[in-house]
């Protein structure tokens, strides 16, 4: 029987590629959710016939209600943040794929896990902001967290040999280096929005593309790897792999290293999360080694790209420090995309919030939201 999938963030880059995979595998779409892209969501509804849809933005939800009023066999419409959580918690789905951008994805991740539903996680902020809460809930409810990020999927794939996985010694987390690899601070003084959005290998949404340019994305992934795979941060090494062919590697006790390779196509990790533990044909092309001129490695420049250094400091501090770093980054990236701050200012602000307080100790969901609010306020006070 085909799996039933609930897809959160269906109109974004990961969401649309997820629908490619779902269609290729003949899976059923139980639910779709989007923030405000009503026109694309309505096309997806017509194509995949979900039972339930959720629209977070209030004005967009009103437009969607109008469109659905004239539709035969229209899906149930849920509205607002509460609607997103309600959809995530519906037990009819076999798996919830969370591709929401930012901390907004955390409540939905927790809602699904609380119902014992497996979560294919493309929303790295769920683990960055609430790592303890997410992993504790998954363990308590015996629900699986299946990584969708290409790097974490690569690590997950390399650890499928359970016997070898017991001797995991180090994670080698690869980074493309983004559009500014090799640039100095002086060269980045006047980097523009358009410059930062020119990623050399991947086609992604604006926010994650900026995070790749600042190396914040790699810092977030380091934090996520700590929660997913149980290694301390000093055992996660960032390696620049410019061609994005090696998606990450793991090293075992005997110093043997396994790597996962493939074309830079997000449909590969998306599909593995949905079909795990099976491997089946899919829509992504195969890697042609005869067309590879080289595979190179380099060191990530933490002196120029301060977001990465800030994230390392945040996960070492523990508690809500990663949440503060994430909140400050989300606000700073928003301002940069609006041409209100410089590119280098993003790293300064993220590092500043991490160093501003201790952040240690246990926390609740309410504490996460308060920390996020405080971090965003810090950014607005320091621009």
TrEMBL record:
It is an enzyme of class 1 (oxidoreductase). Residues 5-131 form the 1-deoxy-D-xylulose 5-phosphate reductoisomerase N-terminal domain. Residues 261-377 form the DXP reductoisomerase C-terminal domain. InterPro entries: DXP_reductoisomerase, DXP_reductoisomerase_C, DXP_reductoisomerase_N, DXPR_C, DXPR_C_sf, NAD(P)-bd_dom_sf. NADPH binds at residues 11-14, 37, 123, 125, 205. Residues 145-229 form the 1-deoxy-D-xylulose 5-phosphate reductoisomerase C-terminal domain. One of its GO terms (molecular function) is 1-deoxy-D-xylulose-5-phosphate reductoisomerase activity. 1-deoxy-D-xylulose 5-phosphate binds at residues 124, 150-151, 176, 199, 212, 217-218, 221. Pathway: Isoprenoid biosynthesis; isopentenyl diphosphate biosynthesis via DXP pathway; isopentenyl diphosphate from 1-deoxy-D-xylulose 5-phosphate: step 1/6. Keywords: Isoprene biosynthesis, Magnesium, Manganese, Metal-binding, NADP, Oxidoreductase. It catalyses: 2-C-methyl-D-erythritol 4-phosphate + NADP(+) = 1-deoxy-D-xylulose 5-phosphate + NADPH + H(+). Pfam families: DXP_redisom_C, DXP_reductoisom, DXPR_C. Mn(2+) binds at residues 149, 151, 221. Its EC number is 1.1.1.267. Its cofactor is Mg(2+); Mn(2+). It comes from the Bacteria. Catalyzes the NADPH-dependent rearrangement and reduction of 1-deoxy-D-xylulose-5-phosphate (DXP) to 2-C-methyl-D-erythritol 4-phosphate (MEP). NCBIfam families: Dxr, PRK12464.1. Belongs to the DXR family. PANTHER family: 1-DEOXY-D-XYLULOSE 5-PHOSPHATE REDUCTOISOMERASE, 1-DEOXY-D-XYLULOSE 5-PHOSPHATE REDUCTOISOMERASE, CHLOROPLASTIC. This is 1-deoxy-D-xylulose 5-phosphate reductoisomerase.
């Amino acid at each position: 029987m085909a799996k039933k999938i609930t897809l959160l963030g269906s109109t974004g880059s990961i969401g649309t590629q997820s629908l490619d995979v779902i269609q290729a595998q003949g899976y059923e779409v139980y639910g779709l959710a989007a923030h405000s892209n009503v026109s694309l969501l309505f096309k997806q509804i017509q194509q995949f016939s979900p039972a339930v849809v959720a629209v977070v933005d209030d004005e967009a939800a009103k437009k969607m209600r109008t469109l659905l009023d004239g539709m035969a066999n229209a899906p149930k419409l849920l509205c607002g943040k509460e609607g997103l959580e309600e959809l995530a918690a519906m037990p009819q789905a076999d798996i919830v794929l969370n591709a929401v951008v930012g901390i907004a994805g955390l409540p939905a991740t927790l809602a699904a896990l609380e119902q014992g539903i497996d979560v294919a996680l493309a929303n790295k902020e769920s683990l960055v902001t609430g790592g303890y809460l997410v992993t504790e809930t998954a363990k308590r409810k015996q629900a699986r967290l299946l990584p969708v990020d290409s790097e974490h999927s690569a690590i997950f794939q390399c650890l499928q040999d359970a016997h070898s996985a017991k001797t995991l010694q180090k994670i080698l987390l690869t980074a493309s280096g983004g559009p500014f690899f090799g640039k100095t601070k002086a060269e980045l003084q006047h980097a523009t929005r358009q410059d930062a959005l020119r990623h050399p290998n991947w086609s992604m949404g604006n926010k994650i593309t900026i995070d790749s340019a600042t190396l914040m994305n790699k810092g977030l992934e380091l934090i996520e790897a700590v929660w997913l795979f149980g290694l301390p941060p000093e055992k996660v090494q960032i390696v620049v792999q410019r061609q994005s062919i090696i998606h990450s590697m793991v090293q075992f006790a005997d110093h043997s290293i396994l790597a996962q390779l493939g074309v830079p196509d997000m449909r590969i990790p998306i599909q593995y999360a949905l079909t795990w533990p099976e491997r089946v044909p899919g829509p992504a092309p195969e890697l042609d080694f005869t067309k590879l001129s080289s595979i190179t490695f380099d060191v990530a420049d933490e002196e120029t790209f301060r977001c990465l250094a800030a994230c390392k400091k945040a996960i070492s501090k523990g508690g809500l420090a990663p949440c503060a770093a994430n909140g400050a980054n989300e606000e700073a990236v928003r301002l940069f995309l609006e041409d209100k701050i410089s590119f280098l200012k993003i790293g300064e602000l993220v590092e500043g919030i991490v160093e501003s307080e201790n952040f240690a100790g246990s926390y609740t969901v309410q504490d996460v939201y308060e920390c996020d609010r405080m971090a965003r306020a810090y950014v607005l006070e320091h621009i």
